[in-house]
């Protein structure tokens, strides 16, 4: 069984290549994704279908420009893994370019929960809209 850091690295690598199916294969069937803020995508998403729908919505309204990339080493504390990253996108005349942290909980070789943190939540909320 892969260790927590290896699971998150495999997820991030697959996502970076656009291989959503492989990335999502690292999720537990009951994974919960906590999207922060007060925008159209905010709130807890249960299961990979709901998460996929949310990410698909982000890609749709940003016309495929939404992207994220790790910016530093992963940090591990037991079954928790923090990944510093940068995320960018464009919607019409609005641009998004900020730092964030994604925090993953990994149990029995699968990601069971994800919490996202944005450098400027108000700016991110304004970007995504309601």
Automatic annotation (TrEMBL):
Residues 8-113 form the SnoaL-like domain. It comes from the Bacteria. Gene3D superfamilies: 3.10.450.50. This is SnoaL-like domain-containing protein. It comes from Sphingobacterium lactis.
């Amino acid at each position: 069984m892969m260790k927590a850091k290896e699971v998150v690295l495999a997820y991030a690598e697959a996502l970076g290549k656009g291989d959503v199916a492989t990335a999502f294969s690292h999720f537990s069937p009951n994974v919960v994704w906590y999207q922060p803020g007060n925008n159209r995508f905010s709130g807890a998403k249960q299961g990979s279908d709901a998460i996929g729908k949310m990410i698909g919505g982000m890609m749709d309204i940003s016309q495929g420009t939404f992207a994220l990339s790790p910016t530093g080493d992963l940090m591990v504390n037991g079954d928790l893994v923090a990944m510093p990253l940068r995320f960018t996108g464009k919607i019409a005349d609005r641009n998004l370019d900020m730092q964030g942290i994604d925090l993953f909980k990994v149990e029995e070789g699968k990601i069971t929960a994800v919490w996202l943190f944005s450098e400027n939540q108000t700016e991110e909320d304004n970007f995504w809209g309601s």
